[in-house]
Write a structure and sequence with these properties.
Layout (H helix, E strand, L loop, with lengths): L2 E6 L4 H13 L4 E5 L2 E4 L5 H13 L3 E3 L2 H18 L9 H9 L3 H12 L3 H19 L4 H7 L5 H12 L3 H6 L12
């Protein structure tokens, strides 16, 4: 009988590879792995959980036991997945995506997120989008207009205003002195 474990701070494909490697080292059989969640072939013993948690903690991850924290991590994972790992952004809004994928009313998710994280889902989405904009500006492969379109901004002006509000810089000023200005996704 399979069981799931939830892991905090899984934000990218590299994180998945690291977690998968650690589970293999502990001879834990994985059925499926995605951001924030691992489906195992069987339930872990308490000793296995403790050992895994120690290994994960040394790598900047941790097992999540309580339901509310698990939901918060799922919200973050879904947002990160939508913003950072989709090749084409969906036109659907985040409230619909989160409600549908997490099977909870958006008001519940929003209130829980604000209560635990001390910020709103909307502000978290904006912070993630701005980090993605920074990444794309640094890569210098897309115009600001293409970036705005990719991230579903209604206009370049709206993206620029939001960017300046969050970073204190215009996108072009950021581009001129962009060394070291990006944040790790899990630190947002």
């Amino acid at each position: 009988m399979s069981s799931s474990i939830y892991i905090k701070n899984m934000v990218c494909d590299r994180c998945i590879m690291v977690i998968e490697d650690e589970l293999k080292k502990l001879n834990i059989v994985v059925e499926d792995i995605k951001l924030g969640e691992v489906v195992l072939s069987k339930e872990l013993s308490q000793d296995d959980k403790n050992q895994l948690n120690q290994r994960l903690h040394s790598l900047g991850f941790e097992l999540i036991d309580d339901k509310k924290t698990r939901i918060i991590e799922q919200i973050k994972s879904k947002i990160i997945e939508q913003i950072h790992h989709q090749t084409a952004q969906q036109k659907t809004n985040f409230s619909e995506i989160l409600s549908r994928q997490l099977n909870h009313d958006y008001n519940y998710l929003s209130n829980l997120f604000s209560e635990i994280e001390g910020t709103t889902i909307e502000k978290y989405v904006i912070a993630q989008k701005i980090e993605k904009v920074k990444e794309l500006i640094i890569y210098d492969e897309l115009s600001l207009s293409e970036i705005a379109d990719l991230l579903n901004y209604s206009s370049v002006a709206y993206l620029s205003n939001q960017f300046k509000k969050v970073t204190g810089l215009t996108p072009s000023a950021f581009k001129q002195n962009s060394q070291g200005k990006r944040k790790a996704i899990d630190k947002i």
